Amino acid sequence: MIEKSFKRKFILRFTGIVLTGMGVIAMLLYITIPSSETRHYADAIISFIKADDALSGVIRAALIVESIVISGVVVLVAVLASHKIAGPVYSLQRVINELVTSRKACEHKFRPITFRSYDQLQNTARTFNTMINGLNEHFRAISDAYEEFERARKEIDNTPESAARLKEKADNLGKAIERFRV
């Protein structure tokens, strides 16, 4: 139901966010780690101790910042993605409720559903619109056949020709109703 291109874009965006966060941490580490030239073993030990002290604070700060940024971005992406799905579902529910509760069936005036171009479920909308067009055509055929039947009924004059004409119109109405059955 959800298009593969949407899934692919979502995964790429999420991966980009994570990689950007990792890059920011690596840059912070590179900037804050003290660099020194060591010539003796004791200098190397002192350099490691200084780096350990510096890294502890930097790593904690970087993890906190990355957690906050990634959490915020994930929430934002999730909200935007859910709107691409929830919006069309809401539109479908609205139109289905209109179909069920409306008197438009008698007037065969159902309007097709439209989604924003970037919404998911575009195929569902096309299928739904095909169904609505079919309903409109069936209702129009039934309405036309009923109007012809009513005209023939009003023109009946107890002759075999008018009775045959009324029977023909009743048969046409029955055929129109029969085509409507699912």
Brief rundown of the structure:
This protein is mainly α and 182 residues long. The chain has helices at residues 4-32, 41-101, 104-107, 122-154, 160-180.
Which tags fit this structure?
single chain, 2 domains, mainly alpha, 81% helix, rod-shaped, 182 residues
Molecular structure report:
The protein has 5 helices and no strands. It is mostly helical. The protein starts with a helix and ends with a helix. The relative contact order is 0.08.
The overall pLDDT average reads 76
End-to-end separation in angstroms reads: 24 Å
Give the overall form. rod-shaped
Residue share in helices? over 70%
Find the structural class using helix and strand composition. mainly alpha
Strand content: under 5%
Strand count, sense and barrel status of the largest sheet are: none
Topology:
Blueprint: H1 4-32, H2 41-101, H3 104-107, H4 122-154, H5 160-180
Helix pairs in contact: 1-2, 4-5
